[in-house]
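Hi everyone,

Forwarding the result from last night's run.
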Amino acid sequence: MRLRHLVIMGIAALLMVPPTLLADTVKGRIMEISRLASTIQIRIPNEDPVVVRFGPETKFVDTSGIDDLTAPDLIEVEFEPGQPATQITKVVFGLPPGIEIDVQQMLGILTGGQPYTLIDTRPRKPYLQGHIPSASQAFPKDEDFASALPDDKDRLLVFYCGGPTCPYTAEAVGIAQDLGYTNVKGFQAGHPGWQKAELPLHAEPQWVAENLDDAHVVIDTRNPVISAQRHIPGAATMPAANFEALTEQFIRDQTIAELPGVADQRAPIILYSDTHASRDVLIAFRELRSWGYRNTTILKGGLEGWISAGLPVESNQLANAVRYVKKLAPGAIAPEEFVALEKSRDDVILLDVRSDQEAATGTIPDSIHIPLEQVEANLDRLDKDKEILAYCANGIRAEMVYRALKNQGYKVRYLNENLEIAENGSFRIL
């Protein structure tokens, strides 16, 4: 180990580069991107997550830029410790020539009338939560994968998974071709591309039935009089016309679009009507997705399919207001506890990791402000004997700091909520 260290020191000296600035490369999947702090949190296999910065000098390879990246894309980052990344490469799994189709071609297949088989090659859990309409599920690494393929080897067979950085589409295409299938296509944009295009996604009834709780929002988009006769337990009523009226109101008042009772745009929302093709549920889906609620799905089969599957229904007055309680992620603090601890301040440090520009518009009194990218260089300002409550504007950077400080042995939690701080230091959790 000492010899290796000396060799590295010698090479660094020859190159006139300090050893601490030797370039490093990491490869992993994106967990979160904070554009406000120009940082990316990356999940590295069998290691702790890594946070790297990007800037105007960062070169992007196989991607148009940071706006083309999202979780859980696979990337390779070249950087020097303490400096923004020199290069970020989007790792893409290619398909053989003539195999890949785009969103419009995928739409054409689904609506064109030609017989086809569409297979989601992701693991079963994400498939159940939301998949492209008409897709079945089969994981290429399972021994019985081939049994999910159609008997007719000339039938149009389409595979997709979690986007261009997911390997399973290419694996499935290869297996199918080896088995003699002659009309194989791969929708490489996958679930993320379909989601980005704001096209409908279906949630499986059994998954919905197992998640009828306050951490999941279920909305009946039919006429309330009809809905009251039979509906899914715990569902709230909100006819499609209400969604359209709210959109008009947001435009007229020039306010941020928000589903009443659900400020968290990452909330899982399931919409339903009589069927999954009913006009009212499609309208509600369109409006919610345009508001930015990206985890919105439509119940596959609608209420008719729900009842046919023998799942429970209720007959009473539905709730007029949506009830949603965000499920706390590991290390996150409940908003009400954050408020209580902020008031008492007993053995607690409030750590503001927003940028200098954001902090200039207002900070919570007696908090410590250290921008995200400067935290690890300022650990001496943090007392290990006290609990640290990290916060930012939306929870993304606070989570990154939580992971970094936890690995350093600090007692830390973070606020995973949208937060507004006024010039006088008062704040509002949205």
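The CA atoms of residues 33 and 40 lie 5 Å apart.

Cheers,
N.
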